[in-house]
Amino acid sequence: MGFGILFIGYFFTLTINLGGLNIPPHFIGYLLMFWACYKLMPYSSYFKKTSYTLIALSAMSVWLFSSELGVVYFSQDPLVFYDEVSFLKILVSALMHFYLLKALIEISTDVGRVKISIKCKRNIFITLAVLTCHAIISNPFIDLGIEEFLNSVLVVPATETLAPITETLVPSTSEIVKHEVALGLNDHITSIAVNFVVILNMIQIFSCYMWICYEGDEEMELENAKDPLSKLTAKMAKENAEYKESKNKSKKKKK
Q: What is the 3-state secondary structure of the chain?
């Protein structure tokens, strides 16, 4: 049906930063999710809206990943507008999550899975709150002094406590540590928060796979689809099944 592919693709949106390179590449996940949404379009119009945002996210992710590869492996400067594209990606990601969760709410409500629907509604608020904060902190157009605040509140006290140890091992190491931590702490905090949201949504996608899509990832019953043709096909199939069942019962009575 598509929920299995959607789950695998969404898994690829987890962010693990290894030496400045985000692994796994997000664009792979977005392309898999696009394929899944294409298969799921008959069941909710929100899957179609989600697919549009996934096209944009795939393009931006390719741009960002190629820039990170150049920085890490070829010692190049980041590509032009790297920060601006990263900021735009957060905004589009928020829109994608809104459409995706609305699709899960609609489809789970249609098949009577109320608990999944309620949890997806909860996830909309959590996801948008986290991504909004991420966008504000990562805004390249306005310097809010977030890194300076974290540096003064967390980094400086910690490094001053460790200063005697670090400077005994390597001179001036405490200053190096202080600088590096100040630069990276903001990214680590936002990555943890975003990954937490991704895991929450992964659970709901997996729930849809388990409870809405049956073993073997078979197609959902067509009667749950939105288009009239699918509903008519489902009605005819149901009537045909009832006719065969009644015919079999009559044969058993004769015997």
A: CCHHHHHHHHHCCCCEEECCEEECCHHHHHHHHHHHHHHHHHHCHHHHHHHHHHHHHHHHHHHHHHHHHHHHHHCCCCCCCHHHHHHHHHHHHHHHHHHHHHHHHHHHHHCCCHHHHHHHHHHHHHHHHHHHHHHHHHCCCCCCCHHHHHHHHHHHHHHHHHHHHHHHHCCCHHHHHHHHHHHHHHHHHHHHHHHHHHHHHHHHHHHHHHHCCCHHHCCCCHHHCCCHHHHHHHHHHHHHHHHHHHHHHHHHHHC
